[in-house]
Design goal:
single chain; about 325 residues; alpha/beta; UDP-galactose 4-epimerase, domain 1; seven-stranded parallel beta sheet; binds nicotinamide-adenine-dinucleotide
Length: about 325
């Protein structure tokens, strides 16, 4: 079978493709696992992975006809990761609307036109929650996004829901927690500091904490998120029922707890490299995001989060910081 991964050159895209290629097969219908014969990674930049089964396509998701030209009769799975992320969508409204909204609709229409009801996994975000939140967000808390990115993600979820209801696709939207620790260069996400305050000091570089150390965020490690994406891919349609959006499990942690974990892994010298410099704009956006969740539905469906913040930081140090 063939798989299309949009945003395939991005952080999660590269890790997911690596995992799919290594696994070599995946179960997207109820009978048995199927061999992965080809993966197409679509992104505006070229991906770094090379494999005979992988083709890296450079192009813009929202360009008319592009996604349709990449889908095949044997495309059983589409993982839609391409996005203009939070800070960038807030800074450039038109770009966010074009990629996150028009691009997502174009992708869903192309999947519908296949006529084979492909499985579609859409990475939404906890940024669909915002404003006057209850102390704990539950599975029935109504999404009330406060930023353009969250609004665009929520509309994407609604489209996935309706395209699934109509039988055009077998869709599922997962609201991904903030991923820490993200290696490499930061992207345009407003939450980027949550990774930066670990990644930079462990590399001996200064980092800025633009929000209060008491700020609570809902976090998950890259490994946990990739595990949960694989689970999303393989869950049966019956396991989802009619409601195709879900809050993924994560950890509630303050930035201070991250710094405490940094102290254990990198020592006091690493913590001293983090400079507290409050940034009103970042704080306003991040403080509208929910930090505490009850993810009973996802846990009952077999999703699993990380054990604690320290294990996330230790995992990063093991895998990336020390090569
Ligand atoms: N990492 C997180 O903390 C987090 C949290 C919640 C949700 N998500 C969602 O998960 C997905 C992947 O996130 P990530 O961390 O890998 O981000 P990323 O920025 O590394 O990857 C997104 C990719 O989309 C590509 N892209 C942007 N515009 C495009 C276009 N017009 N056409 C094709 N490709 C385009 C980018 O070049 C980038 O490679 C995104 O949809 C993001 O909104 C991520």
């Amino acid at each position: 079978m063939h798989i299309l991964v949009t945003g395939g050159a991005g952080f999660l895209g590269q890790q997911l493709i690596k995992r799919l290629l290594a696994q070599g097969q995946v179960q997207v219908d109820d009978s048995a696992a199927q061999g992965i014969t080809a993966i197409t990674a679509l992104d505006v930049v070229a991906g770094a992975l090379a494999d005979p089964r992988l083709s890296n396509e450079v192009g813009d998701l929202s360009q008319p006809g592009l996604v349709a030209s990449l889908l095949r009769k044997d495309t059983r799975l589409v993982v839609h990761l391409a996005a203009v992320v939070s800070g960038s969508a807030e800074a450039d409204f038109d770009l966010g609307m074009r990629v996150n909204l028009d691009g997502t609709r174009a992708l869903l229409e192309a999947c519908r036109a296949l006529g084979t009801q492909p499985r579609v996994v859409f990475t939404s975000s906890i940024a669909v929650f915002g404003g006057d939140m209850p102390a704990v967000v539950t599975d029935i808390t109504p999404p009330t996004p406060q930023g353009s990115y969250g609004i665009q993600k929520l509309i994407g979820e609604h489209l996935v829901q309706d395209f699934s209801r109509k039988g055009f696709i077998d869709g599922r939207s997962v609201r991904v927690p903030t991923v820490v620790v993200r290696p490499g260069k930061p992207n345009g996400a407003a939450s980027g500091f949550a990774s930066g305050i670990i990644r930079e000091p462990l590399a001996g570089i200064e980092a800025v904490l633009p929000v209060s150390p008491e700020t609570v965020m809902w976090l998950a490690s890259p490994a946990a998120v990739i595990g949960m994406l694989m689970h999303t891919i393989e869950l049966s349609a019956q396991a989802w029922g009619w409601h195709r959006s879900i809050n993924l499990p994560g950890l509630s942690a303050t930035m201070q707890e991250e710094l405490d974990a940094l102290r254990v892994v990198g020592g006091e010298a690493a913590v001293k490299l983090v400079k507290y410099a409050p940034d009103e704009k970042v704080m306003r956006l991040v403080n509208t995001w929910a930090g505490r969740f009850d993810t009973s539905r996802a846990l009952a469906m077999g999703y699993r989060a990380d054990a604690d913040v320290l294990s996330i930081v230790q995992g990063y140090a093991r895998e990336y910081a020390q090569g």
